């Protein structure tokens, strides 16, 4: 075993401990995939990341991202949380304010400005209508009738999200889904607020087959939803989405559009700093 630096950060909330927690192991070189996966399962958080020396000369660091059950090529709140931990450990952004993260999905640009972090959303690897039998199954999982689902789309950008649009934020908040029916589906639900000065949408994320059934605040899902909602003329950026409300969190995800590129941002707070023996 080796003593390594360790951080826990809170992502997507201006109030510490009201967003989504991330565990970050620094100096992760030398750890095997099995060791990383075992530790990620042990932390019992939605994701744990490991910072390593980059293999690309363009990257500032390399990250491996693990849920409790598997490694992910990309995830949103782990991207922002890892960048925050790397900066706090002595890393510095480039002259343009950018940090370049290397992960299995490629090089991800992270913008650091005015205390906020934002990542450039990677392209969707599957994007399009969901087959009708699956939409009916999702309605059953969510505990609602099929006709309450306005639209559904594949939104895969690492995680295998299926986006589901309901008519209102209240409908999203009232969902009481059945995790026993979900299998391995990853379902993201969104609905608009009628009048809310702070947030335009409420988002919830349900992950079947995982110890974390409802994720608190989910950057990859919000990135995919943004692409879909903007393309469908349902949302006009910039806007802010809230997530985690039903869990007692206060997640705020900021969506902006820059020359056709979606940026997903929010506040990240460092909460725990220490060491871990791995």
UniProtKB/TrEMBL annotation:
Annotated Gene Ontology cellular component terms? cytoplasm
Pfam families according to UniProt: PhzC-PhzF
Molecular function (GO) terms for this protein are: isomerase activity
Q: Which InterPro entries match?
A: Phenazine_PhzF-like
Record SUPFAM superfamilies: Diaminopimelate epimerase-like
Which residues carry out catalysis? 47
Q: Which PANTHER family match?
A: ANTISENSE-ENHANCING SEQUENCE 1 (PTHR13774:SF32), PHENAZINE BIOSYNTHESIS PROTEIN (PTHR13774)
**Name of this protein:** PhzF family phenazine biosynthesis protein
This chain's source organism reads Arthrobacter terrae
């Amino acid at each position: 075993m080796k003593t390594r630096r360790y951080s826990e950060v809170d992502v997507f909330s201006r109030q510490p401990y009201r967003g989504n927690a991330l565990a970050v192991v620094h100096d992760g070189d030398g750890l095997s995939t099995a060791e990383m996966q075992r530790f990620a399962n042990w932390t019992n958080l939605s994701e744990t990341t490991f910072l390593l020396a980059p293999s690309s000369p363009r990257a500032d660091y390399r990250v491996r991202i693990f849920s409790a059950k598997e490694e992910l090529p990309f995830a949103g709140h782990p991207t922002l949380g890892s960048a925050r931990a790397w900066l706090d450990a002595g890393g510095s952004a480039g002259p343009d304010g950018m940090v370049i993260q290397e992960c299995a999905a490629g090089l991800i640009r992270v913008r650091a400005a005015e205390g906020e972090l934002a990542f450039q959303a990677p392209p969707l690897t599957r994007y399009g209508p969901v087959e009708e039998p699956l939409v009916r199954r999702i309605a059953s999982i969510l505990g609602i009738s099929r006709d309450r689902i306005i639209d559904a789309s594949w939104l895969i950008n690492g995680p295998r999200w299926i986006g589901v649009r309901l008519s209102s934020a209240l409908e999203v908040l009232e969902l009481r889904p059945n995790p026993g029916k979900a299998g391995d589906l990853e379902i993201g639900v969104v609905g608009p607020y009628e009048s809310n000065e702070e947030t335009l949408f409420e988002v919830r994320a349900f992950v079947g087959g995982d110890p974390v059934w409802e994720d608190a605040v989910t950057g990859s899902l919000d990135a995919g939803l943004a692409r879909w909602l903007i393309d469908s003329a349902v949302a006009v950026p910039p806007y802010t989405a809230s997530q985690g409300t039903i869990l007692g969190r206060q997640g705020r995800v900021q969506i902006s559009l820059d020359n056709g590129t979606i940026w997903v941002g929010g506040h990240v707070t460092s909460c725990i700093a220490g060491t871990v023996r791995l």
